[in-house]
Amino acid sequence: MSSEEKVPERVPVSISELSKRGYQLLKEDHIAEAEENFRRIIEIEPQNNYALVGMGDAARKRKSYHEAIRYYEECLGYHVGNKYALVGLADSYRSLKQFHRAIEIWEKYLAQGDSDVTVLTRIADAYRKVLDFSRSKEIYHKILEIDPGNPYALTGLGYLHFDLKEYREALTYWERMHEKDPKNIWVLTSIGNCYRKLKTYEKGIPYFKKALDIQPNNFYALFGLADCYRGMNDPQESLFYWQKILDADPDNKVILTRIGDSYRAMNQLDTAREFYSKALNIEFDSYAVLGLALINKEKGNYLEAIESLSGLLVNDAKNPRLYIEIAQSWLALDKRDKALEVLTRAQRMGIKNLGIGELLEKLQK
Which residues form the domain of 160? Predict the structure, then answer.
């Protein structure tokens, strides 16, 4: 470097200006430039809460959550209870799926009396993830008191009741969401799934079809429709939608098995066998084995059916259907004592099932 050349001097900028610029750059996803501004603040004022939180936010945007945690904790060391550091810290732990730790920090935030709806939503979601449904529900309802139409609280309550198998209650929240956002695919398929779980299949079908109008290859809508038609004993229509899923995912063993079920329901047993075998070539599937056993039973190969069904009992000893199918196979072979033995064993195991009870009563008479 010659004596005439000079190192360019930094233009003096106030901490306030650096902070504003840093957060604006962060908002625009210019993370490295934002960090440079925050570092310049820290050089001047190492304990500056805006700069430390800014560095944490930048690290979090880079998905460097452990680094973000260090900055937020450093800020809290100097500024106990800083709300932005607490939220960032909790969000970092949430991203690391350490939900209990995130909840602990969010509760500190709430203890300051702040009712920020965004933070309340995150806390309620975290409680739902750790299966503390009562606390989660309590916070979601608190959000709805503040903001009656809050979509995150309505969605969260929909998922919460669905997870608890309270499908009618889940529907009330999903339907409120549907009124607000009638073209939301997640809402449409969630309503459809509630009706599907309630076995009111004909009510679910229109919602899945509306979802397909918006997104023709949506997996959840196709699956929902196929399963609804299956529940309505319409294997031909069910097959149409299973096949659409298989076209996009040819190695999906669950769908291969469902297609096998459709062909078996239509009495196309050889085609059904072909699809069950394809599923088993990918990976063991108990439903595919069951399907093949039922084909053997249908074709009169009762001993082969009994062997397969008995094998399934090893890992599914409480499944009443297996006992009924085995007993019926023994009866077809005129082995009444064997059928009685199987059904009695099921009862001794405490399996309460109407079909088992009726068949056993018939044989005992």
Answer: 115-181
